[in-house]
Write a structure and sequence with these properties.
Layout lengths: L1 E5 L7 E2 L3 H11 L6 E7 L4 E9 L6 H13 L7 E7 L9 H14 L3 E8 L4 E3 H4 L22
Parallel strand pairs: 5-6
Antiparallel strand pairs: 1-4, 2-4, 3-4, 3-5, 6-7
Helix pairs in contact: 2-3
Length: 155
């Protein structure tokens, strides 16, 4: 994996208060033609100044290695309070094993004092919020939108 760092030019960081804010940031820096993991590193007010891009990700488990790196970084980076992740999987998409990866990431990062707001998986034709998929609690600063009450369907 080859990490790259993008530092946005905004003064005082960029606000990431909702899933839409995170998706806007990710789509502005993502390269959808290659496998990547993107990380928005945020302070306690959910303002970010850094987007970390890890290129050449060879497996879906690469996000767990990035989680380990972030947990270690949190020990030295005083202002790191929350992160939002995105996995770019050209020709693929979300996998059932991502549910286990979500739980591993939230535990690993939470132990380091970092809140995982959401982890988006971008596939060929879609983006899935794994946190929303597992019905994780709302962790964003923006008010939680009303949820539709739709009965589950058999697949």
């Amino acid at each position: 994996m080859e990490p790259l760092v993008y530092d946005p030019p905004q003064h005082g960081g960029f606000a990431v208060h909702s899933p839409g804010d995170a998706l806007d940031a990710f789509t502005s820096v993502a390269s959808f033609d290659r496998a990547q993991i993107l990380v928005l590193m945020l302070d306690a007010e959910h303002r970010g100044t850094t987007c970390l891009a890890v290129d050449d990700v060879r497996s879906a488990d690469g996000v767990l290695r990035v989680g380990t790196l972030l947990a270690e970084l949190a020990q030295h980076e005083i202002g790191l309070a929350a992160v939002t992740l995105a996995s770019i999987r050209p020709g693929g998409g979300a996998e059932l094993a991502d549910i286990d990866r979500w739980h591993s990431l939230t535990t690993q990062l939470g132990t380091a004092g970092v809140t995982l707001l959401e982890w988006f998986v971008f596939g060929e034709h879609s983006a899935v919020g794994i946190g929303e998929l597992v019905d994780a609690p709302w962790r964003w600063r923006a008010p939680e939108p009303a949820r539709l009450s739709i009965p589950p369907r058999c697949w």
